[in-house]
Specification:
Chain lengths: 383, 249
């Protein structure tokens, strides 16, 4: 009996010390991930396997625009720290996108069960985010004026997407004008685009984004976007409705035009995973009551997107290209609660025609479509 | 993935010799090439509305799919006033056949009808690379370019708009790739290149060298009389950013 008690005690102590060591390791892992730029790091120990414990790890990284690279980085950190059985859940503003695990070097993704989502959401806290500030140049160029062929307007946006609650954020910042021979906007430092934004996956594979405020491209109002974006399919479908007006900053003032305009667009996008090319067809009513359609081909490179488009509307025809690149040098300052970096996804578009505004939309930088595109898990092993 | 090799380009920044294109490419396709070149007045290519001038070419070449590359070219004629940004040109090169499977390379260049550019050209051309040793190869290229373009007449021709039609390129001062052309390209170690060609107007020579796998400097000798140059720079798009990979402080 005594013998048995002894054995039991030893096992108990062993088990307890094992558990304590694990808790310490989890803290170490968390801080390693955090110092690599991850935010909202949540570790859920799940089941005890033969050779260790399985951990579900929730992560978000706002400095890397490719989720596959986010996963690879997280995985290499956790395996180097001895966490051999892990499944990673990617968050966007704390909302679950999907779960991925590494199987012999390939990434396998699936939807996360509601139970685990709830576990993650219980541990979610806005305080798990840094004040993640980024610097983003805004460059508008109008080509083709005979006397001054390159008219441009450049300013620097310094701001942050401040997560206030799960999925809910305030995007705000200041815009510092650098140079302007394009329009008559004042040269004072002014409020950059600032709006409230709510992002959610309200049903599995169904996403929505609601925004209200002052957006990019001089529009203010409300913007609603819905997207059906299945985790494993190549086709996704989106709807967008926005009611916006024009705003700009004359000297020491802000001017809001009271006339509102509707924008409604339907979008089909199909991914050819082997070539990493998205073909997107968008039609409906753009700004300026301009109805028509826009065909877009997007090639997805590791951290870069290059797109070619062609637009036909009532107003006319145009074509052009756009791209998304991460800016150099990336992280500038990173502490526990603060980060200052360059934009991980700077977007710019060139349109052939600059007469009239053909097929124009706004706030494309932050659209649900552009956010989700990179999360297609069929791409993860194709880079 | 396969070594990031630079392939030889013509003055447009497309795979090619001096001025003519070629239908073969290096295996990599995850790169974008920026190119800058200069053409002296006597050998101008764009001839913007029949106005000869020294010309600067800024171009960009991207191959998003194995069988297609996209070329954007801006021509800035130096002496032509009131031209704005310059002549903006777009074309596509379709890599129809490749040597690995079919024994020869065959490509087509198509310029979509945009009524915008004066260097629109449509052509088809073949080549075959012959290896002399592990590091040395030569590649004869032969092709034909259409002498007319399907487009509208320009306002400066003082015609009414009478729709799209086949119009001789020479009417716009466009003599680029009109008729049969051909040449030979020599490749040493994917680093040093020599070319000799007939571009439907002149016989040209060139030699170029690639530095740091990214930068290519090229000297061209046009018509055995004029020397000119070209600089291209390649960016590989599928490389991981260092900052996304390393994590140890």
């Amino acid at each position: 009996m005594l013998n048995f008690m002894n054995k039991f005690l030893i096992i108990f102590i062993l088990f307890f010390s094992h558990f304590a060591a694990n808790a310490q390791d989890v803290d170490k892992l968390k801080s390693a991930l955090q110092s690599a730029g991850f935010e909202q790091v949540i570790v859920l120990p799940v089941s005890l396997l033969d050779d260790g414990r399985l951990y579900l790890i929730g992560i978000e990284h706002r400095g890397i625009n490719n989720p596959a690279e986010v996963l690879i980085l997280a995985n290499s950190i956790s395996t180097s720290m001895g966490f051999l059985h892990t499944k990673f859940t990617l968050f966007y503003k704390g909302q679950v996108i999907h779960q991925s695990e590494f199987n012999n070097g390939t990434i396998v993704s699936s939807n996360l069960s509601d139970t685990y989502s709830r576990d993650f959401y219980q541990k979610f806290s806005p305080r798990n985010y840094r004040l993640n500030t980024f610097i983003d140049p805004e460059i508008q160029i109008r080509f083709g004026n005979f006397i001054n062929p390159i008219q441009s307007k450049t300013s620097l946006f310094i701001g942050s997407d401040i997560v206030l609650a799960r999925g809910f954020s305030l995007f705000t910042g200041i815009a510092i004008p650098i140079q302007n021979d394009l329009d008559s906007e004042s040269n004072n430092v002014k409020l950059g685009s600032s709006y409230f934004d709510y992002f959610t996956q309200f049903l599995t594979n169904h996403y929505a984004q609601l925004s209200a405020g002052m957006f990019y491209d001089d529009r203010y109002g409300v913007d609603l976007e819905y997207r059906y974006f299945p985790n494993h399919a190549n086709l996704s479908v989106g709807l967008r409705y926005a009611k916006t007006g024009f705003y700009y900053f004359p000297e020491n003032a802000v001017f809001f035009e009271s006339k509102f305009e509707n924008l409604y667009l339907i979008n089909f996008e199909y991914l050819f995973p082997k070539d990493r090319i998205n073909v997107s067809l968008e039609f409906g009513q753009f700004l300026n009551k301009d109805t028509g359609l826009k065909l877009l081909f997007i090639k997805q490179y590791k951290n870069i997107e290059v797109g070619f488009f062609s637009t036909v509307t009532q107003t006319g025809r145009t074509a052009g290209f756009n791209f998304m690149v991460p800016l150099i040098p990336g992280k500038i300052i990173r502490t526990r609660n603060f980060e200052f970096r360059t934009n991980d996804s700077f977007r710019w578009e060139y349109s052939y025609s600059n007469e009239g505004e053909i097929g124009r939309d706004f706030n494309a930088k932050k659209s649900l479509r552009n956010t989700l595109r990179r999360f297609n898990s069929n791409l993860y092993n194709r880079y | 993935m396969s070594g990031n090799v630079f392939s030889q380009t013509n003055f447009f920044g497309k795979p090619g010799l001096v001025r003519i294109p070629k239908p073969s490419f290096n295996e990599d396709r995850d790169n974008v090439l920026f190119n800058f070149s200069y053409m002296p007045r006597e050998y101008s290519v764009n001839n913007f509305m029949n106005r000869r001038s020294e010309e600067l070419f800024y171009s960009l070449n991207l191959r998003p799919i194995n069988w297609l590359s996209v070329n954007l070219v801006i021509t800035r004629p130096i002496d032509v006033p009131r031209i704005g940004i310059g002549d903006r040109h777009l074309d596509f090169q379709f890599y129809v056949l490749n040597q690995k499977r079919y024994g020869i390379n065959l490509s087509m260049i198509l310029s979509p009808t945009l009524d915008a550019s004066f260097i629109d050209h449509n052509s088809v051309f073949i080549s075959r690379e012959i290896k002399l040793s592990k590091t040395l190869s030569f590649e004869p290229v032969f092709g034909y370019g259409l002498k007319a373009n399907y487009r509208k007449r320009t306002k400066s021709m003082r015609y009414e708009d009478d729709g799209y039609q086949w119009i001789k390129k020479s009417k716009f001062g466009n003599y680029y790739l009109s008729g049969f052309f051909g040449g030979i390209s020599i490749n040493a170690k994917d680093k040093v290149f020599f070319s000799a060609e007939y571009d439907t107007q002149y016989i040209n020579l060139s030699s170029s060298v690639t530095l740091f796998k990214k930068l290519n400097l090229k000297a061209m000798y046009l018509d055995f009389t004029q020397l000119t140059g070209q600089v291209s720079y390649t960016i590989f798009l599928d490389k991981s950013l260092k900052r996304n990979v390393k994590f140890h402080e």
